[in-house]
Design a protein that fits this description.
By secondary structure, the chain is α/β, with parallel strands linked by helices. The longest helix has 21 residues. It is globular and about 65 Å long.
Length: 469
């Protein structure tokens, strides 16, 4: 347990297959050099193993239907995300993965390296690709575990319990015929059932033909004792060092995932902050179901929210929870390679603001941090989103000297027909900034007075960071 006032302990949760979506990680790869470096460092090995780049798998729906491409892509995405979060000062005190995600958890725990993990997970994907897709998986809500297990056991090898995800949340896997009959039995008892979209009946005897090839590949990998506490799928308890090896991965393939026990182990270990490292929110949803309400649960990347918004929101929540976020490391690549507002053009050369009193912007959301009123200087860091339309959309963070965000504007969208020549977001004038901020609800006059000089950026006519009263 952590001592009073100490940094909260953090658990990393690594989701399995079916959490992926088209475009996962693409924006973060494009926008943030720390994450991009983590992916690109292993892109050549990925291409050698699969014949395709990882970004192509991240973005291509057809590629994501092929296990030999998808599984190593999910693994690489997860370990690169873990490296990204760690670079920002968010270190795991314990880890747990779900099915495929256990490989990334083991890698982050130090059981094997990223290159070894890519070799192993690529072999796993090829082994699955060689097994014809068959069977179904169904999530069951509200069951009595003992009664459900009894119903499933009656079907022998035709059906299995695939995962214990949370209290009253169990996944069942098996042949089409067995699953159809079981769903009828479950619904007759009033249990909610949800059919899962999967290529195979994972964690059942249906995928047993993939085990020999996986065990052979795992036998070529040296497994080390975890350097970070790792909760195991097979037991829900801690890896002591001798369990992980070729035989473990073979048994893991056809045995139930005891994720509920793994989360409980992390909570008992003292973790109060949980971060889903990968795409989706499946694991944070399952974990929250057995939470006492005092933990912080942060989901993974989402197709509904820009990656840049997700990571900045999470870093803010983590800092508020007591995690010492390394904002300097987070912002350093932007400040080294990107342009800042007004820094590349003198004020006299900038075009005058448009005469219209209407603001030529649209905004998704603005976050004003409590530190804004106390900040004495700031610089605006602009991150461009992919366009493809006549509108240009950017996210802007105004950061203080320590790299800590003061104000964050998400989804700043210029009107059609404007751009750099018309005073685009990289060249915001003080007047445009004033109109921008004045249009936002909820800002007090004091906040405006504090924030306007910071927003103007270096080189603007409004003084920045004056120390005189």
């Amino acid at each position: 347990m952590t001592a009073a006032g100490a940094r909260p302990w953090t658990g990393f949760l690594f989701p399995g297959q079916s959490s992926e979506y088209v475009g996962m990680g693409v924006e973060l790869h494009r926008e943030h050099p720390l994450f991009r470096a983590g992916v690109d460092r292993h892109a050549e090995q990925f291409r050698r193993l699969t014949g395709i780049s990882p970004l192509d798998v991240f973005a291509d729906p057809a590629a994501q239907t092929r296990a030999e491409l998808l599984q190593p892509a999910v693994f690489l995405l997860q370990v690169a995300l873990a490296e990204f979060w760690t670079s920002c000062g968010v270190r795991p005190d314990a880890v747990v993965g779900h099915s495929l995600g256990e490989y990334a958890a083991a890698c982050v725990a130090g059981v094997f390296g990223v290159e070894e993990g890519l070799e192993l997970v690529s072999a796993r994907g090829r082994a699955f690709a060689a097994v014809p897709g068959a069977g179904r998986m169904v999530a069951v809500g509200g069951p009595d575990p003992a009664e459900l297990e009894s119903l499933v056991a009656a079907y022998g090898d035709a059906a299995s319990v695939a995962a214990y995800n949370a209290p009253e949340r169990i996944v069942v896997s098996g042949t089409d015929e067995a699953m159809a009959e079981l769903v009828t039995a479950f619904e007759r008892r009033g249990w909610l059932t949800i059919a899962l979209e999967t290529t195979h009946a994972f964690h059942s005897t249906s995928v047993a033909p993939a085990v020999p090839a996986l065990v052979e590949a795992a036998g070529r990998i040296r497994h080390r004792t975890p350097a970070v506490p790792l909760a195991l799928n097979l037991t829900g308890g801690w890896a002591e060092g001798g369990e992980l090896g070729a035989d473990y991965w073979g048994r893991q393939l056809t045995s139930p995932v005891r994720f509920m026990g793994g989360v409980r182990a992390l909570m008992d270990h003292g973790c109060t902050v949980f971060l889903e490292v990968g795409p989706g929110r499946t694991l944070t949803t399952a974990g929250r179901a057995q939470s006492g309400g005092n933990e912080l649960w942060l989901s993974g990347l989402s197709p509904r929210t820009p990656d840049s918004v997700t990571v900045l929101e999470h870093l803010t929540h983590l800092e508020e929870a007591g995690i010492p976020v390394d904002w300097v490391r987070y912002h350093a690549p932007f400040r080294a390679t990107g342009r800042t507002a007004g820094a590349d053009r003198p004020a006299a050369d900038r075009p005058a603001p448009a005469p219209s009193t209407e603001l030529p912007f649209r905004i998704e959301r603005v976050v004003i941090h409590e530190s804004a009123s106390a900040a004495r200087s700031g610089v605006a860091v602009v991150r461009h989103r992919v366009g493809g339309t006549e509108r240009e959309v950017v996210d802007v963070s105004v950061v203080d000297d320590a790299g800590r965000p003061i104000v964050e504007v998400f989804g700043l969208e210029l009107a059609a027909g404007t751009g750099e020549e018309a005073g685009g977001p990289d060249q915001l004038t003080p007047e445009e900034a004033e109109r921008l901020l004045a249009s936002l609800d909820g800002l007090t006059e004091d906040q405006l007075q504090d924030l306007l000089p910071l927003w103007a950026g270096p080189g603007a006519s409004t003084p920045v960071g004056s120390t005189e009263e």
